[in-house]
Amino acid sequence: MSSVADLTAIARIRDAAVRLFGSQGVERTSVRQIADAAGVSPALVIHHYGSKDALRGACDDWVVEWVARENTEYASARGASAIALIQQAVADGERYRPLLDYLARMLTADGDRSAALFDRFVDETEAMIAAGVADGTMNRSSDPRIQALIITLNGMSTLVMRAHLERNLGGGLLDAAGLARLTLPMLELYTDGLYSNSQMLEVARAALGASAAGGATTTGKANA
Amino acid sequence: MSSVADLTAIARIRDAAVRLFGSQGVERTSVRQIADAAGVSPALVIHHYGSKDALRGACDDWVVEWVARENTEYASARGASAIALIQQAVADGERYRPLLDYLARMLTADGDRSAALFDRFVDETEAMIAAGVADGTMNRSSDPRIQALIITLNGMSTLVMRAHLERNLGGGLLDAAGLARLTLPMLELYTDGLYSNSQMLEVARAALGASAAGGATTTGKANA
DNA sequence: CAGTAGACTAAACGCGCGTTCAGCATGGTG
DNA sequence: CACCATGCTGAACGCGCGTTTAGTCTACTG
Questions:
Q1: Which of A113, B20, B59, B76 can bridge B29 by disulfide, Cβ–Cβ 3.0-4.6 Å?
Q2: Residues 116-175, chain A: which have Cβ within 8 Å of B?
Q3: Residues A120, A124, A125, A127: is their CA dihedral positive or negative?
Q4: Measured between alpha carbons, how far is A177 from B137 in angstroms, rounded to an integer?
Q5: Residue A92 and residue A103: Cα distance in Å, rounded?
Q6: Contact A161 B164 (CB under 8 A)
């Protein structure tokens, strides 16, 4: 998202569209609104992008590229995944809010671009967990792909349902207080789990007829 | 969702609206489409409900009531929360799909009804965890409300991003195979957590200056 | 049997939408 | 200078939307 006021009209239109699509949704946003926000005529929006739907596609690409770009920048320096990037962006204040809003809407819409983006997040999460397993800081699952899927889903839920999250947090994800309140319970869950013993797990294993070779990872929780 | 064909027109309109709003979204659904699906004229839709927006409100109420009704039916017999109801409904096949689709869209929209519904889910989750803590099957968190919030968020993510979930599962949540593939890794995560030691947790505790009386629950994972 | 209330429809209204069109500046190129 | 591509606009077009209106049919009430 460029903050400079005098960009090319093409860029200003795209920025305005991302902002409006993200905050109101595509359907509730008219070409005229975008044109106003960008300081151009509605006709110019169509002139440059062909149609509203093509503009939407260009916004999708732009946001995906942003994710990829920031990801390589940060990740190479910190060894983190796109998930971590998002948490970084969330903590970075209002600056990235339009992007994150857009991302959240994109993830709840269906379509090829949405699927490709989500699956990439799962890939990165899987790689991150594999690294964690390798250096002994994370538990191996009986199905690492699905484990990564679940973790990704959980991570994205804070984005997609941020309104509910922040309301219950009694403050934004942005201010330190809200984030602080979230951090500990989340780490507790990811460290100790929810269940205090492996009863449910054992029952499910038995019911599903999983072989004992399924790859258990248990740290030693009691069976009952 | 009533399967009987000859209901009153009011009910048929509401059923059609829930189905279409759920599968396409409110904005992409026209009053004319709803009227067609219900076998009535567009004017009758407005005659009975006043406006499209009021119809949407009636659908919201209807779905919320369905959640409450099914919840008391099942929960009293099984001691489970609305979350469990949803998992039940998911497993129950195509029958509840329109309701669940609608629910998912409702949760990603903002508005009073959406907030009230979500917060009720959190309440129920909190009560369920409190019961689990009381009988020793679940871990107490340093902040039970936020713990319940996180668990609720995670549970809802399977609804809200079901398309991504099912695609990565290689099959529906409905067929036994897909559900089975999900169950074990999820229980593993909720039993053993993701992290194999409490290093991250301890670092966060220290950084946030949490007092030692914060209510640790750890089962005994090593510090490093 | 007349009267009336409610369910229901065909047709139309007005509006805002995405989009098109004709034309006006501007500025680099022969 | 003439030329034309490019950036851009104001006005308009056609369409589908939510909604209104005027009226018909049906069934119950006195």
A1: B20
A2: 118-119, 122, 129, 132, 136-139, 141-143, 145-147, 149-151, 153-154, 156-158, 160-161, 163-165, 167-169
A3: positive
A4: 31
A5: 16
A6: no
Footprint of strand C on the protein (CB under 7 A): A 29-33, 42-43, 45-47, 51-53; B 8-10, 39-44, 47-48
CA-wise closest residue to A96 among A185, A180, A159, A184? A159
What's CA A84's distance to the chain center, in Å?
9
Q: Domains in chain B, please, with CATH?
A: 9-209 (1.10.357.10)
**pLDDT tens string A29-58:** 999 999 999 999 999 999 999 999 999 999
Contact residues for B198 (Cβ-Cβ < 8 A; gap 6+): A191, A192, B218, B221, B222, B223
Q: Which residues of A touch B28 (CB under 8 A)?
A: 27
Q: CB–CB of B95/B19 below 8 Å?
A: no
* Residue range B102-158, pLDDT digits in tens: 999 999 999 999 999 999 999 999 999 999 999 999 999 999 999 999 999 999 999
Amino acid, res. A115: A
| CA distance linking residue B142 with residue B65, whole number of Å | 33
How far, in whole angstroms, is CA A76 from its chain's centroid?
19
Alpha-carbon gap, residue A12 to A161, rounded angstroms: 28
Q: Give SS3 for B143.
A: coil
The whole-model pTM stands at 0.88
ipTM of the complex: 0.88
Q: What angle do CA A4, A7, A8 make, to 5 degrees?
A: 170
CA A54 / C1′ C19 distance in Å: 13
- At position A14, the amino acid (one-letter code) is R
Measured between alpha carbons, how far is A178 from B110 in angstroms, rounded to an integer?
A: 20
Three-state SS letters, chain A: CCCCCCCCHHHHHHHHHHHHHHHHCCCCCCHHHHHHHHCCCHHHHHHHHCCHHHHHHHHHHHHHHHHHHHHHHHHHHHCCCHHHHHHHHHHCCHHHHHHHHHHHHHHHCCCHHHHHHHHHHHHHHHHHHHHHHHCCCECCCCCHHHHHHHHHHHHHHHHHCHHHHHHHHCCCCCCHHHHHHHHHHHHHHHHHCCECCCHHHHHHHHHCCCCHHHCCCCCCCCCC
Q: Which DSSP state fits B198?
A: S
